[in-house]
């Protein structure tokens, strides 16, 4: 569907490189052959991989199905069927399918619901089957998923095993499969899982009940908390259920939680998850930049939630947030060659970190180097399925007409009120802010055409069928037909770099500003500093007046030339020259009395003496955050301290 | 030795309450009876407690020995001997002593050096024996420790098991015991352990080699890194060895590492350890307040290191740092009743947290409520031994005379150059800044008397034998004898609250200030705010001019009255009234074109309208951080945002 531009490039690299890369690692790590070994009845006591490694296989299967829809590549259903045959061979006679439990030398099925991830893994199988149904149709993977879903619905029915999984995912898998196959039992089971959550049945775990959203029922919680990916997958399922079951109370609850999360627990990149320790949300306003976790999967989870809220409410701000998260979390993760990834997406990299070993799974993911694979490797396969299905997020159709949410080169073709509508969308976005929509086929009935004017855009203009351009403000620019083939609509979005200030309650960025350019949050990389400069020591003057159109944006930096001192906290005593002087009395005394100094020496911490010379200042380039770390290991920061 | 005042109070509560409290929990958790069970030959597969729980028993034994020296309480050696008998009964015939390894159903001895803590536990046994030797003398505990030390020296000799322990502690235990018993083999073994470290022999672990200081040898490292307590215990041992072996290269190396750590990786409280995830130091300038770990044990470890550097170098700044850490980390941890503790000591508590269960070991220690015990419970016993031996840090004697480092009510009595010196020190410090020293006995030879003038003190005066007071600056105030009984020396340390500014490289406190009063870092507790106010929303005007002598210090706070918005990052666009306005063009268009807004509404983030009325401002009390959370659960912050 996407014919060119940034996202088409990501999709091509995904299909051409990442698929093979992921399959190589699944093979290399033994996560694929776990299915073969279960099928052969081998003892599995030495099974490699975490308990959830099956899910990586399912996510790449899902990616293949979406990719088939994107390109029609006929080898994909063949490869997918071969993969599905290996998967299905490991399925037990009753439908249970998991290589980590219940086979020779392993713990019994469902014996560790809090940490065992069995239902989580099944949820990814179901989502893969949904992609298969919606693109290829029937197949081995779908049959295996249905058998697995039937088995777990029986196992976890009310009156049977009334329990939930520590990691939400089965819920969204069940509701999606229930819709795809028109099977209300699956939807009911998903609802049951959602309703059972929040009552402490999982115990305390290592990080408390909130870690797996088992502290408070979904209906009554106020904010997302605990493990970010878990919270977001659960929210996605709850919205699907609320819409399916016309449950406005549930929809309102999730929307309320997500909105507060966006307003108080979300980074400027759209990233979510402030803590490494539990991969979790912190408290309101707890948004450290250097230790921001911002897991790539949480970015994807947030897009899943925002997309569902956009569909459920029609509120354009959710499309804005999808854009922000796509450009500044999802796009930041993969390397240009699609074979290395960021797992965490911090906003400040204090040290370059170690070079990453390209042939070893990475344990920690804290370097400025992208890693080929991780010991917990959820992100690469999550990216694969997201890029393959990305165009689904670009536009919607409803009874009034068509809404264009994201911009790129694509043709939208849809039946509409008995007729048929085709639009060609062309743009060099985000390098250029002009979006041209040409009507290729038009229905007879007048049809509303809505284009999102991004929240970041000031001075946008909208031009319909050659009329004079009119100003449009963020939200929707709307034009109403009737349309004829060849009709042209143009949206112009000025792309000046903009200076962004944070809410004063965010302690981590007090006294700082950031710069955005179009949908891109910009960052400063240490690699762009002159020799001898350090990102620790720089400050920026308010660049509002000096920022010009065009990229990279350039700002003036000063080096603070702070003197190193033995102790970094000093009394505020201002001397005549406005310098900060450590309190120091001159001592005098009789012969028997003397005084010698401690380690606190006179120094200044303020701006360097202006007469210090030009070497204190430099103009440096700010570039899109999504591009960081691609020119070698480096330090980096998004938020720039002001003078 | 201490007769009154703040620290005497801590010592009394420690002896009267904490000892019994700790013994109760050691019993309750089964950590004591582990020794009995090993002695009886029971299978130990179900042994309760972490692998290092024996060390808590040793630390309380050490505390009892020091406490005997403090008070002469004759029941203590009896209780200690009874405890030692239980301990020694678990000792294997060859001297190996550990209840977690090597017995029925357990892993073999030394089978998990990276994580098993066997040598760490032995190190605490040796330190307990040192306290025993230096206070009570011979005894069962000492004999057990010697047998254990002999066994491990043979086991880990060069040519035998050339390995180290993941958690340093054996090194300081061995060097201290070697000195106490004049046994060079122990000192050599300690040196061998130190020299073996830093070569990667422990593997990568969960957090990489730096976690256990196995990334770089002690001689070549530049800064403390990884797990803070481990790094500090290792440093303490290395200094002891450097002094003992006159190894200035080693001493310089540790001093260099510690000095850089103090100047770039230490909180204003003296607390060390910025990360929860690995209980570790972060990078330079990575000093989050809300997620500061500042483990109580790391504070104690830092005092151990600073004390050794003070002795080795004579530099007064190490005594300053001991004071800072004692008042603002160690003193903050225990409850007034000595039966609950902070494990972590954050500088910012965003939420009150849950009430702590007083009869259950606490898993996470993240509330504003002190907890009775922890699943990993190193801190309570570490406090017990530190308070019991606290007076050791107060003064030193050398060939020139006497140095008074810390202030309180005490009598110092020491032989000096064939004569004898006795000083009575009286003060209400830190409530009052006057310290009076009266000579009670005097040697014939003139003797230098040095009193530390704390680094925080401006305007100190010093008065010797009734002469006119003279100004003294931070460092040493020195008076030289000859002295006669009744001679009096007075140091006056003005206690005005002082405003402190951070180094601009500390991102977490940019635009903030703190207030100190004497050695106390002050904090603002949410419990002191008017109803409806939140610590998230306050800012302080520069209080330099309004701070008066006397406690609590009072500052003027403003509530920012920021409006809640859907997104907390906004473009910097200043309107006519100086308000920050989100970009928003007025739209107009022909009939077929319309524009509707996104979620970004006009708002202001700056100071509230001054006409908003007096309810926006309040004078609030700042109180010593060590006292926080003692009046009920509360939010809290040390660093106050400025306007």
TrEMBL record, chains A, B:
Ranges of residues in domain Non-reducing end beta-L-arabinofuranosidase-like GH127 middle: 402-495
UniProt xrefs under Pfam families: Beta-AFase-like_GH127_cat, Glyco_hydro127C, Glyco_hydro127M
Assigned keywords, A-Z: Hydrolase
GO molecular function: hydrolase activity
GO aspect biological process, one term: carbohydrate metabolic process
Coiled-coil stretches: none
Regions of compositional bias (Polar residues) in chain numbering: 586-597
Chain residue ranges for the region called Disordered: 586-616
Domain Non-reducing end beta-L-arabinofuranosidase-like GH127 C-terminal: 497-641
SUPFAM superfamilies: Six-hairpin glycosidases
Domain of life: Bacteria
UniProt-recorded name of the protein: Glycoside hydrolase family 127 protein
Segments forming domain Non-reducing end beta-L-arabinofuranosidase-like GH127 catalytic: 5-391
Presence of keyword Hydrolase: yes
Protein's UniProt keywords contain Cytoplasm: no
């Amino acid at each position: 569907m996407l014919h060119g531009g940034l996202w088409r490039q990501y999709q091509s690299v995904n299909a051409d490189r990442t698929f093979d890369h992921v399959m190589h690692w699944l093979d290399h790590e033994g996560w694929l052959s776990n299915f073969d070994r279960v099928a052969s009845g081998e003892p599995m006591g030495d099974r490699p991989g975490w308990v959830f490694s099956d899910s990586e296989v399912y996510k790449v299967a899902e990616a293949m199905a979406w990719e088939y829809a994107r390109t029609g590549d006929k080898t994909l259903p063949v490869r997918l069927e071969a993969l599905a045959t290996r998967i299905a061979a490991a399925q037990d006679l009753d439908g249970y399918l998991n290589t980590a439990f219940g086979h020779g030398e392993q713990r019994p099925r469902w014996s560790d619901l809090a940490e065992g991830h069995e239902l989580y893994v099944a949820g990814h199988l179901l989502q893969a089957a949904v992609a298969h149904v919606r693109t290829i149709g029937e197949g081995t993977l779908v049959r295996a998923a249905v058998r697995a879903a039937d088995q777990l619905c029986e196992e976890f029915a009310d009156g049977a095993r009334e329990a939930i999984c520590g990691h939400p995912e089965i819920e969204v898998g069940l509701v999606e499969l229930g819709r795809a196959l028109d099977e209300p039992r699956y939807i009911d089971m998903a609802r049951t899982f959602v309703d059972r959550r929040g009552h402490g049945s999982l115990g305390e775990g290592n990080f408390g009940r909130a870690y797996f959203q088992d502290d408070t029922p979904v209906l009554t919680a106020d904010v997302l908390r605990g493990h970010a990916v878990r919270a977001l997958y659960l929210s996605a399922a709850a919205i699907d259920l609320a819409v399916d079951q016309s449950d406005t109370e549930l929809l309102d609850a999730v929307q309320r939680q997500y909105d507060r999360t966006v307003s108080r627990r979300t980074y400027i990149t759209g990233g979510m998850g402030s803590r490494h320790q539990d991969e979790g949300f912190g408290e309101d306003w707890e948004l450290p930049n250097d230790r921001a976790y911002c897991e790539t999967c949480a970015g994807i989870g947030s897009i899943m939630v925002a997309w569902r809220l956009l569909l459920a409410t029609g509120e354009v701000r959710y499309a804005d947030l999808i854009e922000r998260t796509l450009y500044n979390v999802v796009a930041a993760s993969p390397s240009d060659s699609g074979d290395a990834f960021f797992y965490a997406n911090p906003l400040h990299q204090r040290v370059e970190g170690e070079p990453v070993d390209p042939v070893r799974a990475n344990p920690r993911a804290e370097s400025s180097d992208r890693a080929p694979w991780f010991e917990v490797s959820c992100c690469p396969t999550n990216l694969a399925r997201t890029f393959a299905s990305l165009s689904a997020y670009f536009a919607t159709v409803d009874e009034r007409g068509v809404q264009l949410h994201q911009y790129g080169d694509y043709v939208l073709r849809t039946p509409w009120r008995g007729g048929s509508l085709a639009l060609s969308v062309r743009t060099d976005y985000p390098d250029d802010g002009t979006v041209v929509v040409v009507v290729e086929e038009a229905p007879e009935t007048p049809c509303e055409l809505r284009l999102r004017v991004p929240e970041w855009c000031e001075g946008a203009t909208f031009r319909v069928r050659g009329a004079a351009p009119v100003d449009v403000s963020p939200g929707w620019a709307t034009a109403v037909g009737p349309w004829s083939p060849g009709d042209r609509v143009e949206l112009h979005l000025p792309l000046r770099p903009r200076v962004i200030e944070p809410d004063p309650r965010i302690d981590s960025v007090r006294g700082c500003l950031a710069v955005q350019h179009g949908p891109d949050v910009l960052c400063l990389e240490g690699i762009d500093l002159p020799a001898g400069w350090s990102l620790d020591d720089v400050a920026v003057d308010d660049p509002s007046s000096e920022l010009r159109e065009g990229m990279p944006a350039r700002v003036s930096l000063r080096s603070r030339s702070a003197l190193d001192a033995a102790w970094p906290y000093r009394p505020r005593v201002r001397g005549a020259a406005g310098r900060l002087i450590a309190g120091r009395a001159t001592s005098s005394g009789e012969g028997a009395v003397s005084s010698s100094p401690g380690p606190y020496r006179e120094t200044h911490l303020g701006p360097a003496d202006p007469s210090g010379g030009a070497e204190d200042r430099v103009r440096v380039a700010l570039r899109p955050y999504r591009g960081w770390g691609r020119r070698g290991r480096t330090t980096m920061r998004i938020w720039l301290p002001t003078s």
